[in-house]
């Protein structure tokens, strides 16, 4: 009978395993569970059978042992669980002669056991079959009732009860049907009074169901989230595609290396979610993972500051994939906002804007400049600057906006429409016009230690070789010798764009004078308070 039961249980495990491989691969059990199982345990030392002779007048009935169990488990650490079991197992032996029961022997055992269970498979193995080993012990309450028919209609009953201490060793498996439900198959050997194959000691086979809840064992922990960029400026939207907005610090809690990435999105301003590269984190180690975001031109439609949420999904893989979702609040600024970083001002230059391209080409074409002339760039710049003057563009300082830390920068088309702007607005306008005409430009930032307010003007590349400087001026102090982007030297011309309403010649003269005084005579370039920033 026992061999038959073992065959049935083995067949059931095999069939369910085949069915379940594609059903719900878990690989990691939850932290708590409770369940029940039925089992077979021969506590009477008689095989389960019915025997008879004499046409059924004489015979015996043996039930070796069967019972039910309630069990509970809770994770202590990683794959190690605390296991608590309460069972009730009973068995009986009866003999009869001439259809009269001569003796009956019934045995009941109630174990209350505390033990440990260790899951054998690593959580990174994508399997719904979770085999384990277990051991433990505790009290076994044993009651034995024996009734004998000594005389006709007179029975003698003997009741024996007591408590014995014992232990068990076991193997089993949980077969996960869902993250909260599993089939349990268990095999234990009980050592009653720590005896082997004596008394009630023996092998128990069982199967049942368990309900699970609580958190799965964590593969990783998010230790910290540090916002690198709390304020998002629309003009810089392409910059954020590669520059980290945040750093997510992730610790590997698994006993093996894992790979972690972060997917981020700022709805509705992200064109699509942005995935970081997978970062390998060794056992017990912590690494920072940079978070970037893909913003589109829709960000340029913002007319005022507003809050937004940076949603991040941290994903770890090691055979299986596990993820956590986190969020951080950020601020989106208006399309014209600028945080004062000179290295970012070039992002407001819109040389590729179709209207700017059309306008600069039209202005230059109307002047019918000589093609292939050494002064081609210089003449183009002069024509464009003076045309802006003729259109009534003039300098106007920004209003003093109290409690607002950002400066405001106008795009070239906005300045053309408003016909005025401050120093950064006019520099952006002139740089956009020159760059659209194929002329390289650079900003000159002046943070004079003797003045409270910084200033800005422009340099443009005349494309003239050093030996041809006399073609624009015999005074070498009227221009600046710099290396081109290809490494060759050329003559660059400084222009004070705030003097746009008095014409190119005067703006050039003042620009050159300021560069000489501040950058050279007062050592501003050497001391770092005069900086030249390429427009790229």
Please outline the helices and strands.
Elements: H1 2-20, E1 30-41, E2 49-53, E3 58-77, E4 80-97, E5 100-119, E6 129-151, E7 154-178, E8 181-192, E9 202-216, E10 220-227, E11 231-232, E12 246-252, E13 258-265, E14 270-272, E15 274-275, E16 279-281, E17 286-291, E18 294-295, E19 306-318, E20 320-332, E21 337-338, H2 342-345, H3 354-367, H4 376-390, E22 394-395, E23 407-408, H5 412-418, E24 420-421, H6 423-436, E25 441-446, E26 455-461, E27 480-483, E28 489-495, H7 504-521, H8 524-527, E29 530-534
Parallel strand pairs: 11-20, 22-24
Antiparallel strand pairs: 1-3, 1-9, 2-3, 3-4, 4-5, 5-6, 6-7, 7-8, 8-9, 10-12, 12-17, 13-15, 13-16, 13-19, 14-18, 19-20, 21-23, 25-26, 25-29, 26-28, 27-28
Helix pairs in contact: 3-4, 3-6, 5-6
What fraction strand?
Answer: over 45%
- How would a textbook summarize the main sheet? 8 strands, antiparallel, barrel
* Class based on secondary structure composition and strand pairing: alpha+beta
Number of strands: 29
Approximate shape: rod-shaped
Query: Approximately how much helix is present in the residues?
Result: 10-25%
Radius of gyration: 43 Å
- Strands in their spatial order, largest beta sheet: 1-3-4-5-6-7-8-9
Number of separate helices:
8
CATH topology of the largest domain: Porin
Named at the architecture level, the CATH assignment of the largest domain is Beta Barrel
Low-confidence stretches: 1-9, 12-27, 400-404
Q: How many domains make up the 3D coordinates? A: 3
Question: What's the level 1 CATH class of the largest domain?
Answer: Mainly Beta
Overall pLDDT metric: 86
Gap from first CA to last CA: 86 Å
């Amino acid at each position: 009978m026992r061999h038959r039961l073992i065959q049935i249980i083995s067949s059931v495990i095999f069939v369910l395993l085949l069915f379940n491989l594609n059903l719900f691969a878990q690989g990691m059990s939850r932290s708590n569970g409770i369940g029940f199982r039925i089992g077979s345990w021969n506590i009477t030392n008689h095989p389960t059978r019915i025997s008879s002779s004499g046409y059924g007048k004489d015979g015996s009935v043996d039930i070796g042992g069967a019972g039910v169990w309630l069990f509970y488990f809770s994770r202590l650490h990683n794959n190690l669980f605390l296991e608590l079991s309460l069972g009730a197992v009973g068995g009986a032996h009866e003999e009869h002669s001439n259809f009269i029961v001569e003796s009956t022997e019934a045995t009941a055992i109630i174990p209350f056991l505390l033990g440990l269970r260790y899951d054998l498979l690593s959580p990174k193995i994508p399997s719904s079959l979770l085999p384990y080993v277990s051991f433990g012990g505790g009290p076994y309450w044993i009651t034995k009732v024996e009734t004998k028919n000594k005389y006709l209609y007179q029975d003698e009953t003997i009741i024996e009860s007591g408590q014995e201490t014992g232990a068990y060793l076991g193997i089993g498996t949980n077969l996960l049907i869902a993250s909260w439900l599993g089939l349990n198959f268990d095999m234990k050997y009980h050592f009653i009074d720590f005896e082997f194959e004596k008394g009630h000691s023996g092998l128990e086979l069982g199967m049942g169901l368990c309900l699970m809840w609580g958190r799965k064992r964590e593969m990783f922990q998010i230790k910290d989230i540090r916002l690198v960029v709390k304020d998002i400026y629309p003009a810089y939207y392409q910059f954020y595609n590669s520059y980290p907005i945040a750093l997510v610090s992730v610790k590997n809690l698994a006993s093996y290396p894992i790979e972690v990435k972060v997917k981020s999105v700022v709805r509705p301003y992200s064109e699509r979610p942005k995935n970081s590269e997978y970062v390998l984190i060794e056992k017990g180690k912590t690494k920072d993972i940079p978070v970037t975001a893909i913003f589109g031109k829709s960000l340029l439609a913002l007319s005022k500051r507003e809050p937004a949420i940076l949603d991040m999904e941290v994903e770890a893989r090691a055979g299986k994939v596990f993820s956590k979702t986190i969020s951080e609040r950020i601020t989106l600024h208006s399309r014209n906002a600028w945080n004062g970083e000179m290295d970012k001002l070039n992002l407001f230059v819109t040389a590729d804007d179709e209207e700017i391209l059309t306008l600069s080409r039209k202005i230059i074409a109307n002047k019918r400049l000589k093609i292939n002339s050494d002064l081609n760039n210089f003449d183009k710049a002069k024509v464009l600057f003076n045309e802006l003057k003729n259109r009534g563009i003039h300098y106007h300082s920004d209003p003093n906006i109290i409690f607002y830390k950002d400066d405001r920068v106008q795009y070239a088309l906005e300045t053309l429409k408003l016909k005025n702007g401050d120093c950064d607005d006019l520099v952006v306008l002139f740089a956009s016009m020159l760059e659209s005409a194929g002329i390289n430009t650079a900003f000159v930032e002046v943070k004079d230690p003797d003045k409270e307010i910084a200033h800005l003007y422009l340099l443009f590349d005349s494309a003239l070789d050093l030996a041809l400087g006399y073609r624009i001026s015999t005074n070498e102090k009227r221009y600046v010798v710099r290396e081109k982007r290809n490494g060759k030297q050329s003559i660059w011309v400084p222009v004070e764009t705030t003097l746009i309403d008095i014409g190119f010649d005067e703006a050039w003269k003042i620009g050159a004078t300021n560069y000489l005084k501040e950058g050279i005579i007062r050592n501003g370039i050497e001391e770092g308070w005069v900086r030249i920033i390429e427009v790229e």
